[in-house]
Amino acid sequence: MTARKKASSEDSVARVTEITSSSTKSFDDAVRRGVARAHKTLDQVKGAWIQSYKVEIEKGEIVEYRVNMKVTFVLRD
User: Running DSSP on this structure, what letter comes out for residue 63?
Assistant: First the structure.
């Protein structure tokens, strides 16, 4: 069995996709849900940049936390 060399940034090509995630608990939970969902769908998720935060309000109370994020993942050969 041969060892595969670890890919460096010079050896790979990445793509960025934008997603929105929400939670009724917190911004942190919304981010975690978004990253978990991206990881379930995309291979080799390497990072996320939180572009914006938003809350939904009803009757003066926060009912939902939303984040818009850009997720970076490495493309397969």
Answer: E
The count of other CB atoms within 10 Å of the CB of residue 69 is 20
Rounded to an integer, what distance in angstroms lies between the CA atom of residue 65 and that of residue 53?
8
| Main-chain phi, psi angles of 33, to 5 degrees | -65, -45
Measured between alpha carbons, how far is 26 from 35 in angstroms, rounded to an integer?
A: 14
Q: Using one digit for the tens of pLDDT, what is the confidence trace for 2-56?
A: 444 455 555 778 999 999 999 999 999 999 999 999 999 998 999 999 999 999 9
Q: How far is CA 31 from CA 22, 26, 61, in A?
A: 8, 9, 21
41: which 2 tokens?
């769908």
